[in-house]
Specification:
5 helices, Multidrug-efflux Transporter Regulator, Chain: A, Domain 2
Length: 126
């Protein structure tokens, strides 16, 4: 696929593809000025985008992709992927709890402020 076809297929920008290439996550074939992306690149981009959606760092993604290409087998890659995924899930669950607490606190403060404003508006002008 050309860079334009990859952009259209994955809803990314050319800059994104060049960035992933510079980070050695994608390895398109070069024909002069053209980049041609292989089936392997398409599979890797799918995994990169999924990893980014989950909040994995690019370094984590690169390491996981490198394990796949290392010949150590899927068991090693799967074990490492599960380790990274569990760590990320723990982080997301902690952030979710903290966000819930912040929402509850802010809701309470807004209620207090609305009550005070209503009291002030209900008082007759002196």
């Amino acid at each position: 696929m050309t860079i334009r076809e990859m952009c259209d297929a994955f809803d990314v920008t050319p800059r994104t593809l060049r960035f992933y290439e510079s980070k050695e996550l994608l390895f398109p074939v070069r024909e002069g000025q053209r980049r041609l992306f292989t089936r392997r690149d398409r599979a890797r981009l799918t995994l990169i985008l999924r990893g980014k959606r989950f909040g994995f760092s690019l370094e984590d993604i690169r390491q996981l992709l490198d394990l796949y290409g290392s010949g150590e087998g899927q068991q090693v890659q799967l074990a490492r992927t599960l380790e990274v995924a569990r760590s990320r899930l723990d982080t997301l669950q902690r952030q979710h709890r903290e966000l819930g607490e912040a929402i509850a606190d802010l809701t309470q403060e807004i209620g207090w402020g609305e009550d005070k404003l209503a009291e002030a508006e209900a008082k007759p002008a002196a």
